[in-house]
Design goal:
Blueprint (H helix, E strand, L loop, with lengths): L22 H8 L3 E5 L5 E3 L7 E2 H4 L8 E6 L2 E7 L10 E3 L1 H7 L2 H18 L11 E4 L4 E4 L5 E2 L4 E9 L3 E6 L11 E4 L6 H13 L5 E10 L4 E9 L13 E6 H9 L11 H10 L7
Parallel strand pairs: 1-5, 10-14
Antiparallel strand pairs: 1-3, 2-6, 4-5, 7-8, 8-9, 10-12, 11-15, 13-14
């Protein structure tokens, strides 16, 4: 398959790391900059659905210290800031990132993903994990420093694997009880300390479905700011074998391509949203790619 159709695959901004430590340059970029305002839920606060950004000068004549510098695109700076730190003047439309992923342009959805993940990390980094003192955001939002003990912490990304498990003729899908009715998807799980993503694929498939994987191959990745994950997509080959359910899944089973297409067509089974790498990997398999045997 060609260019991936899932969300947040755009190359995004030039993150211009050197600019983060140049307060005067940041000040000069602020007035004409585009600012994404996020509420406490990580939703974008927009004047209307078609007007994603505020201009810096409309937020504040001076760059707020708690504004996060996201990067540059075509010579223009992009920032984000918490809703509680600004006065917008009139009610805003709050847009969920899942909606934005399907309706905004690819660049702007990628900017939103970057801002949302940083916004969440900042909200969780207000107190020092070593001494409990208040932390101060530094480098335009990219680290937090404790003035009491000197601890410096940086934004975190939580790697997770999502795997298209196939025996060459069938694909292994599962569903959780909390998912929408009829929704099935690929198996997935977080990478544990001291573990490679490939080891995680093998472990998670066995833990969740009792299936032993024999080979693993990396496909593509997707930032997943729900809130700070990075989804690493894999193909995995496993000989056809019985499924043994764990407590994490309500159901899991093997599907042939014909079975899966028929169930999708008649509405008996729903795939994940098109914005997800899971949907991409399943459709890729249905197109005949990745059916390693």
């Amino acid at each position: 398959m060609g260019e991936p159709s899932f969300a947040f695959h755009h190359g995004g901004l030039d993150r211009a790391e050197a600019v983060r430590v140049q307060p005067q340059q940041l000040d000069s970029l602020w007035h004409a900059g585009r600012v994404l305002v996020l509420n406490e839920k990580g939703e974008a606060c927009c004047r209307d659905p078609g007007e994603v950004y505020f201009s810096g000068e409309n937020i504040s004549l001076r760059r707020p210290e708690n504004a996060t510098f996201l990067g540059l695109h075509d010579g223009r700076a992009y920032f984000s800031i918490a809703r509680e730190a600004v006065t917008l003047g009139r009610p805003s439309h709050d847009i969920n990132i899942r909606v934005a992923a399907e309706t905004w342009g690819a660049l702007h959805a990628a900017v939103f993903a970057q801002a949302k993940a940083l916004h969440y990390w900042q909200s969780q980094s207000k107190f020092c994990g070593r001494c409990g003192s208040l932390m101060d955001l530094k480098t335009a939002g990219y680290n937090a420093s404790c003035g009491a003990c000197g601890l410096i912490v940086y934004p975190q990304t939580h790697p997770a694997v999502i795997m298209c498990v196939s025996d060459g003729e069938r694909i292994l899908l599962g569903r959780q009880a909390v998912w929408p009715e009829k929704r099935w998807s690929l198996l997935a799980g977080f990478v544990e300390p001291g573990e490679s993503p490939e080891q995680t694929v093998v472990r998670e498939v066995f833990e969740e479905a009792g299936v032993r994987v024999e080979s693993v191959g990396y496909v593509k990745s997707q930032p997943w700011p729900m809130p700070m994950a990075l989804m690493l997509g894999y193909d995995a080959y496993a000989p056809h074998q019985p499924v043994t359910l764990s407590d994490e899944l309500q159901a899991a089973r093997w599907f042939t391509a014909d079975e899966l297409n028929d169930l999708i067509k008649d509405g008996s089974l729903q795939l994940p949203q098109k914005m997800s790498i899971s949907h991409y990997l399943i459709q890729r398999w249905l197109a005949g790619v990745g059916r390693t045997a």
